[in-house]
## 1
Amino acid sequence: MDYIVCFDIGGTFIKYGVINRNGQMLFKDKVETPKSDIQKLLPELLVEKIEILQNEFLIVGIGISSCGLINHEKGEILFSNNLPGYSGMKLSEILFNHFKLPVSVENDVKSACLGEMWRGAIQGKKNVVFLTLGTGIGSTIIIDGNIVNGSNYLAGELGHTVIVNGGRQCGCGRRGCYERYAATSAFVNDFIEETKKNGEDVENISGEEILKLVEKGDPIASAVYTRFIHYISLGLSNIVHLLNPEAIIIGGGIAERADQFIQDINAEIKKEVMPIYHQDQDVLVFPSILGNDAGLFGACHLTLKKLSHLQV
Ligand SMILES: [Zn+2]
């Protein structure tokens, strides 16, 4: 049996794993992302990990899922917001020159979406929108089975479509962007703000913890939650009218273990979209199945595709 070694490079951690052709993950670990001298330390770290894994597994390809704007054809990091010094790295070339193995490099949200298409929640579907709710909103659009890249790999940034005219300031420079209302961070910030108004001082709380308070009937959490569901659904309804997808998959910690959360979004979307859009299907929104591993599976799938082209 031969294996693909896959990495999911984020701003804080690099997750990595070994996956076989059938999509079974046989090894998984993570390591902190180097904080300085990325151009030197990051490739060194990847090389070190691959060499260690080569002692145990017959590695036939390398798959990289990475934060940032990626040219997947060249395997190059065009721009990274959260890892200074990473922009411009020719990751594919560096790893190919060292190992002489096929290397694929793709953006992490696109990789996660491909992972869900291969082994997760979107198997067999051809028109799909994939979102991850976290600090911001990452998103990918699939039409006729293909990722929509746009002319400069920039297509599908749903997080920066405006849903409130003149609304909250966004990091992108505009006001009222979707992610300022519908990302998990917005949910948490709203909750903290509302509790402060009530004279309480909550500093550190996660979206999942607030969901637990909602379940217990906490009035502040419930009010913030109702608004959050509305904003998420408002943005998704725009997507439904624009793209008429078969399914919308939501990833991110908050979506993966919260059935009620997904049900509430489905119910709210029904109120927002024209009835003809949901006459054939009751449920449009589904949670991601693979969670944090989706990027690794997507990276593996892309490398396997590359291998099969090479073998033809
Ligand atoms: Zn924005």
Note: Residues 160, 170, 172, 174, 177 surround zinc ion (CB under 6 Å).
## 2
Amino acid sequence: MNLVDIGANLAHDSFDADRDAVIERAHQAGVQAMVVTGSDADSNAAAVELAEHNPALSATAGLHPHQAESWSVRLSAQITDFAARRCIVAVGETGLDYFRDLSPRRAQAKAFEAQLAIASTYQLPVFLHQREAHADFTAILKNAIHELPAAVVHCFTGDREALETYLALGCHIGVTGWICDERRGRPVFDLLADIPSDRLMLETDCPYLLPRNLKPKPDSRRNEPAYLPVVAQTAANARHQSVEELAEQATANATAFFALAEGG
Ligand SMILES: [Zn+2]
């Protein structure tokens, strides 16, 4: 198998002690390429640093809605500067999160709109986060989507209506280990067969979202890219197709979406 993890928070400090070993285990497990998620000034810089020194890694640069209140001229300049670099393959993660509501909604909208504008200027795809904010998120995205080369709704956890809206807008759908949770992940598992095969991509969102069906579970409960095959197998089960077929399609989608070097 040759997989791409399109959402790996490898800049997270939980990987500080053994990051090289984590990347090596990913390769051993068939995860050849990883897109390191940037979510604030520090993780953007760390993601760029990682991606510039490892050909298997590329990165995104953005501001997560949880931190939207820290949007500033300086951060905008950082993301704009990074957007021009080769290793940056998307703007984000950005979007709206009304589930946690950690930043005021007005600040979330402002940071989201500004990042969509940067992506448009640099003709980069966007890596999007949406939780419990479907209507406002869609309204903002609709205004910008036609100027963007591509968009992925990462860690999709929505319902059928949300899925259909995103597909109609031309979005790709990022699927995580959320679907491996037989309780809260069941509704998304049941929708997986309705995602067109050319729109589906796979991600761990590590260190978060350790697949619940992973056996044995690591003592640390930390998720890592080496567990992406578990997500791929669960998605293949939901779609009644072989994991090999699904992996090939998802990898082709990710390679094209992020313009990754073939076989990288
Ligand atoms: Zn997210």
Note: Residues 93, 129, 154-155 surround zinc ion (CB under 6 Å).
## 3
Amino acid sequence: MWFTRRKSPLQREASISPENILEVRDLKVNINVDDYVLNAVRGVSFSMKKGETLGLVGESGCGKSVTSKTVLGINPSNCTAEGTIAFRKKNGEIVNLLSLEQDGDEFRAIRGAEIAMIFQEPMTAFSPLYTIGNQLGEIIRLHEPEVGKAAVRDRVLAMLKKVGIANPEKRIDQYPHEFSGGMLQRALIAMMLCCNPDFLIADEPTTALDVTIQAQILELMKSLQREFGMSILFITHDLGTVANMCDNVAVMYLGEIVEYGSVQQIFHNPQHPYTRGLLRSLPKMDQNREEKLFVIDGMVPLPVNMKPCCGFHERCTVCIKGRCDVANIDLMNVEQGHSVRCLRMEEGGAR
Ligand SMILES: Nc1ncnc2c1ncn2[C@@H]1O[C@H](COP(=O)(O)OP(=O)(O)OP(=O)(O)O)[C@@H](O)[C@H]1O
Ligand SMILES: [Mg+2]
């Protein structure tokens, strides 16, 4: 069942800036596992404008998917969440998504029609038992029951055409196993766009595809975004994709956003030691082939019963012992629209 337990009843109404479609404020998500608690998201805040693409990047286990699943209300029942997720609905109403029952009618109406999500592995998003046309049509039937059978089929055909599936009249009646991986991802994008959502979460949408198909899918998402004016939360490990797709970037580490800025700021003026490490680990065109790629030592630890500290301190080469490992670090503004969670900013940044 889809629901995340709340610590206490939350207020339904929420405020939001006029230009924003989503504001996540101080989001904390804990996952109760057997005899311990994972602090998977530890106070995440960000906002998104209409039509903006925000890249959420960071290594495996940083809390990117838990954050996005909380927005969509599909966390498992062993999760508790607190904070505010203010969302502007199509009818103009602002609602705190965290206050809604996640398996209730209102959230069901929002999920799919207003907020949609594309997952990493398209095969798992489709049932092998029904045709592609049937599964795409289901979304329209669910959210717009007044639309007739023939009109649903026409809309599905038009959507399949739009995402570049050749011969859609034949493909619409085929089963998922008859589609290639790239075609399935296109079909999944078509399914998510059937009800014209304002907000799309794309969680590693191209990781399972080969490079040429990846490029095609990214181009497709860009052109559909231009056409429909959606906001996209784009989750990826791939910084190259971020540079190509996003307006702004939030770098996540161990459940916190450690750096936030425009693509320009993050790529040309990275400040957090973690962001710098991620960028240094990218291969460069002019790099000597013999030269080894930079590696950030260690791994993302499990965020079990986290004490206040900078989550990155154990792997950080410029950690200040007695400060970074004993207290949470606040985000500091370094320039307009660019903030960093690092004590080294007090002395002009990590070198
Ligand atoms: N259902 C779950 N039960 C237990 N732990 C979970 C569950 N889902 C996520 N976690 C843990 O929460 C933390 C954050 O996980 P999350 O899936 O958000 O990472 P991620 O940044 O999306 O990683 P990836 O890049 O591998 O997808 C991890 O430590 C993960 O092990
Ligand atoms: Mg993930």
Note: The two ends are 48 Å apart (CA to CA).
## 4
Amino acid sequence: MEAFGPIDPAKIAGQDFYTTAGDPVEPEFPGPAELMDRLAALSPAGLDTVFLSNSGAEAVENAMKICYDHTGGSCGITFEGAFHGRTLGTLSVNRSKAVYRRGFPEISGVHDAPFCRDGGCTAGTCDCGFFAGDTSVLRRMLHPDRGHVAPEEVAFVILEPIQGEGGYHVPSNAFLREVADLCARHDVPVIADEIQSGTGRTGDFWASDGLPIEPDVICAAKGARLGATIASADVFPDETSRLSSTWGAGGLIDALQGAVTIDVIRERDLMENAAVRGEQFRAEIENAALPNLVDARGRGLMQAVEFDTERRRDDVQEAALQRGLLTLGCGHKTLRLLPPLDVREREINMGVDLLAEAAEAAA
Ligand SMILES: Cc1ncc(COP(=O)(O)O)c(C=O)c1O
């Protein structure tokens, strides 16, 4: 099969869409294999293997599956406020709004811990419920003698490096270090769900690149244009058919879009742009002194503004839309602001002016 490069003839015989654009060795345009190469090259050392799928939820499903398979564990740990998708498996690790889970059966054995909502937390000052006394909820949960979860049964800890749907919460380094330390101590794989925070959005390719946590598995979608589960080869199952899909190499056009998106991000320094424009946005929000603003937070071009009530947030969103500014709710009182990665200085300027007008109108 070597002679066929990235193409496996058996896959084609099964009508699986493991295709490439023309010559498998020198394709006319980048396809699935080239997208996988790009994703692996931009991931932390050792995360060299990629499985493509149709959506973010499938990327998370497959991340959980490979962790169950690799560790032999039967349970998982997620965090309050988490959102990981809408398939039956992924909704089981959701801990944001009830609407995602209500009435649906779930996979068993998912435990949850508080997520840090304050980037400035330390173990001593934490108000988020994660650190308590001289320890953390997670450390207590996994304590080999006194904990209620046996560490050797934990197949994964899944987290969003910056929580999206749950309210755009940027966790503290103290929180991330504690999670990383416990996972390393008990040999529990960390799944970083980078579906919202990844592909350059925060100014790093993965938000976790700039944070004190080293994922064993990364999930991507959105900017990658299809779902991608990225891990080291030894975390993926050896056994044939344990992990597969008709679309397990991604659609040709989706993969082309994903590969070209990544090329443009790199060639045009769009990660740098995300970092600079994000700082501009925060500075301008501060100057604008929006009425009823409770908090502004985020990293790069993953920014959010929180208002005093849900009603106010909804009114600001409506007033912003009437003025031509598109925003999206998250958490309960927060609006997310996700400008394109190539946004310019003047556009951030205009966006903040429109948001300020909308906040005035809703005051
Ligand atoms: C952090 C996170 N994980 C998973 C998903 C699910 O992705 P998809 O909608 O592509 O299934 C989303 C979607 O918004 C997300 O934000």
Note: The mean pLDDT is 93.
